[in-house]
């Protein structure tokens, strides 16, 4: 089934009316297409519970996907049946994916420094922001001028994972270079405005405030080099840098240093959380900074540092300390 099929397009329109993130839209449509292809192009309206269970079992038994990937596929298919076809699915008894969850890769402070020193310019600044504030690469790239608060050293992440907003730390070390980067971005906006274009704006906001693209607060801190067309209204605009730009620069830097770890953009978010916990930061504070809904998600970092809870000390260390005290 092609991406231009009326059925797929009806799902796309429904998701946009409901305000789903473009990333979620893309993911859901991928899994819905996969579901249809798996059942040899049958229309979903002619299928139901049994076909959904067979699809989910296939993902777990044949594709060996993670539990999280299987859940996303389930959410996509459930959305289609509940919201598009009005055929709610009930009591699905499917095989749960049980691929073990791996501990995240974490860099040492020295490794973080080596990588950052190997980068330069805007690439270096973005990686430092990801590590210093615990941001996902999409969050760092999507920051607008209004999201940086230099007075209280904070950065606001809007419409993050799950559509949530949160506030995180802003390293004082980055303030001079961030201010310089914002000046460059605003200069680009002024030039774009002369041609009647500006930063990409959420479609609904653009209709409500047609001149918002001229407001400096809406400019991306890390604007793309080239103009593009808005994914919803097709208007010419300037988006932020694409994530592949940072990933390529990071890969080049890690290969040159030859760090024996698989380093991705997300590794710096993992390292942010782990280093905070190692430094004694309360796990609830780390949870809030990361934007985790459940503290159980944050607790995986306590396992990374070899403790069930941050700050827990081995009983062997305690008796060793007591022996030293007694000897004195």
Helices and strands in order, then pairings?
Blueprint: H1 6-17, H2 22-38, H3 49-61, H4 67-84, H5 109-118, H6 121-133, H7 137-141, E1 148-149, E2 154-157, E3 166-169, H8 175-194, H9 203-208, E4 228-229, E5 236-237, H10 243-257, H11 265-278, H12 283-290, H13 295-298, H14 300-304, H15 315-327
Antiparallel strand pairs: 1-2, 2-3, 4-5
Structural account:
The protein has 328 residues and is mainly α. Among the domains are: 6-84, DNA polymerase, domain 1 (Orthogonal Bundle); 143-239, no CATH class. It is built from 15 helices and five strands. It has helices at 6-17, 22-38, 49-61, 67-84, 109-118, 121-133, 137-141, 175-194, 203-208, 243-257, 265-278, 283-290, 295-298, 300-304, 315-327; strands at 148-149, 154-157, 166-169, 228-229, 236-237. The strands form two sheets. It has a three-stranded antiparallel sheet. Strands 4-5 form a two-stranded antiparallel sheet. α3 (49-61) packs antiparallel against α4 (67-84), α5 (109-118) packs across α10 and α6 (121-133) packs across α11 (265-278). It is globular and about 60 Å long. The N and C termini lie far apart (78 Å). Belongs to the 'phage' integrase family. It comes from Arenicella xantha. Keywords: DNA integration, DNA recombination, DNA-binding. GO terms for molecular function: DNA binding. Pfam families: Phage_int_SAM_4, Phage_integrase.
């Amino acid at each position: 089934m092609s991406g231009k099929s009326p059925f797929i397009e009806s799902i796309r329109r429904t998701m946009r009316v409901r305000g789903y993130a473009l990333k979620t839209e893309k993911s859901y449509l991928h899994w819905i297409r996969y579901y249809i292809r798996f059942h040899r192009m049958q229309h979903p309206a002619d299928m139901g519970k049994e076909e959904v269970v067979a699809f989910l079992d296939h993902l777990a038994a044949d594709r060996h996907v993670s539990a999280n990937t299987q859940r996303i596929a389930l959410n996509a298919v459930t959305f289609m049946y509940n919201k598009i076809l009005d055929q709610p699915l009930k009591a699905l008894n499917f095989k749960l994916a049980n691929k073990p969850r791996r501990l995240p890769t974490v860099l040492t402070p020295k490794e973080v420094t080596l990588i950052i020193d190997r980068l330069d310019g805007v690439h270096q600044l973005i990686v430092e922001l990801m590590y210093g504030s615990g941001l996902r690469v999409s969050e760092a790239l999507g920051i607008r001028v209004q999201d940086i608060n230099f007075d209280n050293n904070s950065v606001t992440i809007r419409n993050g994972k799950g559509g949530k907003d949160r506030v995180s730390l802003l390293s004082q070390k980055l303030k001079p270079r961030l201010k310089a980067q914002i000046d460059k971005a605003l200069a680009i906006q002024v030039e774009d405005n002369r041609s009647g274009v500006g930063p990409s704006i959420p479609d609904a906001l653009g209709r409500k405030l047609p001149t918002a693209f001229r407001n400096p607060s809406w400019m991306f801190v890390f604007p793309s080099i080239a103009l593009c067309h808005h994914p919803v209204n097709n208007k010419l605009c300037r988006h932020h840098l694409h994530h592949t730009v940072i990933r390529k620069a990071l890969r080049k830097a890690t290969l040159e240093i030859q760090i024996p770890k698989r380093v991705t953009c997300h590794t710096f978010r993992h390292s942010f959380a782990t280093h905070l916990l190692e430094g004694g930061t309360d796990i609830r504070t780390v949870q809030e900074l990361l934007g985790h809904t459940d503290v159980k998600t944050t607790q995986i970092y306590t396992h990374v540092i070899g403790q069930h809870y941050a700050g827990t000390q081995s009983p062997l260390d305690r008796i060793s300390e007591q022996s030293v005290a007694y000897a004195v």
